[in-house]
Amino acid sequence: SLLVCEGGRKAALMVKIMKLTELFDNVPDIEIESLMSDSRKKKPNSIFFCEKGMMFDGHRFVDQAIENGAKVIIHSEPLRNTKDGVVYIRVKNVNAAFNQIADKFYGHPSHKLEMYGVTGTNGKSSTACIIRYILNDIRPCGYIGTIAIEYGNIKLPPLLTTPDIDNLHGILSEMVACKMEACALEASSIGIEQGRVDSIDFDVAIFTNLTHDHLDYHGTMDNYFQAKKKLFDHLKESAVAIVNVDDPYGEKIVEDCKCNVITYGIDHKADYQITHYQLLKDRTIFTLRCNGREYELETNLVAKFNLYNLLGAIAAVNMRGIAITQLLDKIKTIKQIDGRVERIDKGQPFNIIVDFAHTPDGIEKLCQFGAAITPKGKRIIAVTGSAGKRDTVKRPIFGEILDKYADMIVLTEDDPRDEKIVDICNEIASGIKKTPYIIIEDRYQAIREAIQLAEDNDTILILGKGDEEFIYRDYGREPYEGDDNIVREVLTKYYFQNENN
Fold first, then answer.
1. Quick count: other Cβ atoms within 10 Å of Cβ 14?
2. What is the pTM of this model?
């Protein structure tokens, strides 16, 4: 059931006006209409925060911010020039000030919502979307993450996995205006490290797993782990931490946590444990043990890693007072998560799975699922690439994993940015020792080739982009159909047309 939110959203998007004196002491009595962290965007009567990002320092763009409407400058370093009519406020930590002011400016929205934060290398989107789906009829719930921004009948394109401080609080305020009672938010390691969620009042935080990813940013696995750990270190005492104890980092990530810690798992004893399961091509049957009881359950989700995502979501909402029995029908009919282990069936005699997998662990788990559903003697055909200007160490690892499971590999583009696609593909191919592969730079044509190569009961795994509607090239972000839509189009325009002819 969808709440109609257009009216509430329009109210939330109306110009907010707050006096600067409500935010700071000993300042002029001027009106503030917006917050600004990107000096290129026009925002009249705004406060500009001189944040230091991955590549740029906001202190360098104060003049541009003023030209675009900034009336107040929040800075931590001395500024060479000042202008009349502009208020300059120096603070020790710009990010901390931004968090505090955004929270107040938007009316403390996360305090008015039941906030679920989901972090981990893989499974964030699926777990957060599952939470929204199984909770929504009981407590209207929004979602913010890689796939989209959703609440009520509103569906917006995604920003960052974890939006910046201003956008995040603004979106949450829209949810409050639309009478949402909860929100499931993906908390990326970079978002946590950059302090984007420091002022979010989390009630539940979920840790899915930790494997190789984002080392181009974090440098080492320990730094990557420490970034994730900050989310749990900062939880309030009344919150609940839900952790996957089958992951080697599970118990370690909450060792300094002050709140209640709840565990989930399959292979190890846990507060919420799946003790038996049967993986089928189109559904999964399993036994859940928790709170001294056992439940025989069925879900339309497939693959073992999706059982972990479902289990974490069940534990989270159950710990917030929702009975397992209230969730039975929702668990059985969970809405297909776009681009996540999405099985596309238009009547073709072979399997096609589209997934966002773009890490070594994610790709291996998809390959394992592919092997489990592919009859003996039939082939796995994999289509994948690797993002340009990102963690290059994992490229040959991709090749090694594909070499282990696939019978044919099609290497192609995946957000190449300003790197040559063929160079990226060759780096992946350096890990391939025995499996035949081809390089087709155009991703549409690569998917088409894989479908044309497939025979009855083969499995095609299309990995990396999922349902993403954009692709990053050297000149910026370009619209993209999404792997899921391309598959449907190719099947209709080429495969079935050829079959009929």
1. 9
2. 0.86
